[in-house]
Predict the 3D structure of the following.
Amino acid sequence: MTNDARSEASAPGPVLVRHPVRPELAGLVAGVVGHHELVDRPVVRRQVAGSLIPLVLSFGTPLDVLDLSAGEGRGRRTSFVAGIMPGHATTSFEHEQHCLQVYLTPLGVVRLLGLPGRELAARVVDLADAAPAFDDRFVERLLEARTWPRRFELVDRVLLDLLGHGRPVEPFVGWMWRQIERSGGRARIGELVEQTGWSQRHATARFTEEVGIRPKTAASIVRFERALAELRDRPAAEVAAAAGFADQSHLVREFRRFAGWTPTELLRTEPTTAQAAIG
């Protein structure tokens, strides 16, 4: 890995440079990554569903969003944000990818961007529209900074400034999300709602507004993420039981829904995930 933008140009890709998340941003930002990749032919990749929201600040060639199984926003993108997706995406690029990626949690979207998750969920939108602080002028400053440590410092400054001016997450929604995440998606939504003291209708509506998807869908995505992380080390039947699926056929159905592949097909690939990027 290299921090010099000039030597990056000759580096075989992909190169990932990971930056530790500031303590003040814990629970809001899951990771910050510099990415550079040179290729000699067009690359088509599938991004599977996940609970993190990538903010992509691009220095290089655009990324083509070819297909979204459960969302909107197809087309050519440079810097963009992809809201939480209850499905998979197919993208392609040529020659080069050179960008800095900030991975937000659903709570980070509300707290840092000041947007309810509903406005971004299942959508790919230009980053400057969703987060004016990360406009084209800021991306130019990042590129001119030349080294990853300097770029990360600039991004940290903006994130901390946004933290100081953002709006709070509704407390019971934040609590519900954390319980879903900590349980690996196995938490019983009805029991969580009961503990909030709110009605099922109100709790579901507020959660969907803030996070962008319904609580049961959020739990399904988190459960899929956990199963995907374990699949290479354990048989599918064991993963299904450990992750809380009804049975192996239930696991297969969820993998088709969120990855577009069966577990067996997925094992033959290296799917793009936010967890892999942030390590």
Summary: The chain is about 45% helix and 20% strand. Residues 176 and 192 are 7 Å apart (CA to CA).
